[in-house]
Amino acid sequence: MAPRFGVVPTITKEAVSEANTGLAAGNRCVSIGHKTHVTRATLIELSRAGVEYLSTRSVGCNHIDVSYAESVGISVGNVTYSPDSVADYTLMLMLMAVRHAKATLRRADTHDYRLSEIRGKELRDLTVGVVGTGRIGTAVIDRLRGFGCRVLAYDNRPAASADYAPIDELLRHSDIVTLHTPLTAETRHLLDHRRIEQMKHGAFIVNTGRGPLIDTEALLPALENGRLGGAALDVLDGEEGIFYTDCRNKPIENRSLLRLQEMPNVFISPHTAYYTDHALRDTVTNSLINCLDFESGKTWTG
């Protein structure tokens, strides 16, 4: 895409780290992915290499200490991309969860074609709580209208056309809770022991936002003892170093992930909701635009 913008990028396969910041020498702008935590030491070395702007190819910036970056002379910008990628995937996870798709597919893989003793649910009979109504949360709400279900929403800055409620009320009344809020100090472990206990018995959790929005140690017992009906998680606390890696022939240290994957009512996918042609085109395009805007004296964040 770079020729469309009249630039010649320097591309390296390795994730940015303290050891390879020399590759950025001579470039004021660097575009990075969301998969790697950018340490303070790396930020210092990038600054020494002459970097003044980081454009992260993600909506969230939780993998970068933005304040520290600014203190060493580096501005940070994020990108927007098609919210439909994550919204479509979220609806798919909801449907898989309430129709117990994982258990059904597991049985079919072993040629057991009997009906389950547990019947599925129809979305039109359910209340869905949408936590976070930015571009993605709003796109999820738009899709849910077609299913005829009741939708409750929670956001500190209401924007969507939806019935808003305090988060504790939303949790008490929702059969499905789906998370689309940014990860900040205030939202880390948004669903903790207390809030999970507030949820309806048999409710489902869907998370395509960020893993640490859920306290996994609080989620596990609620799933194991039947307090919750199930979960569909595209992101997980501690996913770094596991997701996007071939782990078939090496041990996985994240014991919570292993426990979750053993459960027939829990679906795990490796942070892939955003992964569509359209969204990736948007991400790369907007990262290039960020850098060009910075070079021209403009400031921009998504």
How would you describe what is shown here?
There is one protein chain. This protein has helices at 40-48, 66-71, 83-98, 101-109, 135-145, 167-173, 193-198, 216-224, 255-262, 277-295; strands spanning 29-32, 53-56, 75-77, 127-131, 150-154, 163-164, 176-179, 204-207, 230-233, 266-268. By secondary structure, the protein is of the alpha/beta class. The protein folds into two domains: 2-81 and 276-295, Rossmann fold (3-Layer(aba) Sandwich), CATH 3.40.50.720; 83-268, NAD(P)-binding Rossmann-like Domain (Rossmann fold), CATH 3.40.50.720. The strands form two sheets. It has a seven-stranded parallel β-sheet, with helices on both faces. The longest helix is centred in the C-terminal third of the chain and has 19 residues, at 277-295. It is globular.
What characteristics describe this protein?
single chain; seven-stranded parallel beta sheet; alpha/beta; three-stranded parallel beta sheet; 2 domains; 302 residues; Rossmann fold; 10 helices; 10 strands
